[in-house]
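Hi there, hope your week has been kind to you so far. Thanks so much in advance, here it is.
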Amino acid sequence: MFQRTKKTAGRLYDYTKKITNIDEAKKNAQDLRVIVQDHANPFKKHQARQETFQAAMQRLGIQMQDLGSTYKYYSNRFYLFTFFSLLTFCCAAWALFQTNWVMFGPSVSIFLVFSIHALSASFRASQIRHQELYPFMVFLKHPEEWLPPDYAPDTNLPVKVASNQSPSQKSKRGRR
């Protein structure tokens, strides 16, 4: 009864063996497994890049004279993406009230993309304003830093900080 199925399966196995290289596929699977285990291990400590603000400026080729225009670029980028995220949020709200699901899904996803870009630009502007590279989580703990003020760093004056401490210094003091 199953002779025909057995014969077809045998022919299919022989044909597959002929056109594929099983040994190479096994080797690729083992290599992929090693890579996944290396990167997906939650207990392995990953080394983050430790860099100063001056070293980052040198790596990116930014001079002190360009710092003000770079800050202005990220500040303008923040306000532009904030405007578009609010616009797409209004579109998403309208689509939700109209129960237009075809428009609601893309509007929410575009809103999230614009919001992430705005948050990223705000983070970079804050780092430039304080002339310090601090982690993103420290930035998130200080909501007063989220809106970049209309302040461009002056190369001749020390950096102006509202409370005489950068966000990273505030968080260090709070952990003690």
Notes: The helical segments are 3-19, 22-40, 53-60, 67-97, 101-130, 136-140, 167-175. Residues 155-164 have pLDDT under 50 and may be disordered. The chain has seven helices and no strands. The two ends are 78 Å apart (CA to CA).
